């Protein structure tokens, strides 16, 4: 036979506890029958609070509520071969970097400073600039 193990409130996460207690308290507040035996004096002490009544029911283990927890799917995948690159020595790396720097210096173009006659503060992109940002004179 299949034995169904009922969990007590201590075995649920705090979110599951809140959901179970809230759902049962809502049922009790909508006049659902109380499943555990609680005498009239104890109900008076609880002020007929549905949340406290639900807590007593859950702790006594009489609620037929189950929690389904999604479990991750187990997948098997073939891992490709790991490609390990040969580690170059520091000397080879330094030599390569120096060669690249040399190529950049030789092929690169050096930008010179702007000559004073090329610089005209009154015109930007061919438009007059009087400082107000409108581009109008």
Task: Write a short abstract of this structure.
About 35% of the residues lie in helices and about 5% in strands.
Number of helices: 4
Q: Which regions contain 5 or more consecutive residues with pLDDT less than 50?
A: none
Helix content: 25-40%
CATH-level-4 superfamily name of the domain at 9-60: RNA polymerase subunit, RPB6/omega
Q: What profile does the largest beta sheet have?
A: 2 strands, antiparallel
Strand content: under 5%
> Helix- and strand-based class?
mainly alpha
Average pLDDT over all residues: 75
CATH class of the domain at 9-60: Alpha Beta
CATH topology of the domain at 9-60: Eukaryotic RPB6 RNA polymerase subunit
Task: Write a structural description.
- There is one protein chain.
- It is elongated and about 100 Å long.
- The chain has a two-stranded antiparallel sheet with strand order 1-2.
- It has helices spanning 14-29, 40-45, 50-60, 90-107; strands spanning 123-124, 127-128.
- It has a domain at 9-60: RNA polymerase subunit, RPB6/omega (Eukaryotic RPB6 RNA polymerase subunit).
- With 137 residues, the chain is mainly α.
- Helix 1 (14-29) packs across helix 3 (50-60).
Give me some keywords for this one.
137 residues; Eukaryotic RPB6 RNA polymerase subunit; two-stranded antiparallel sheet
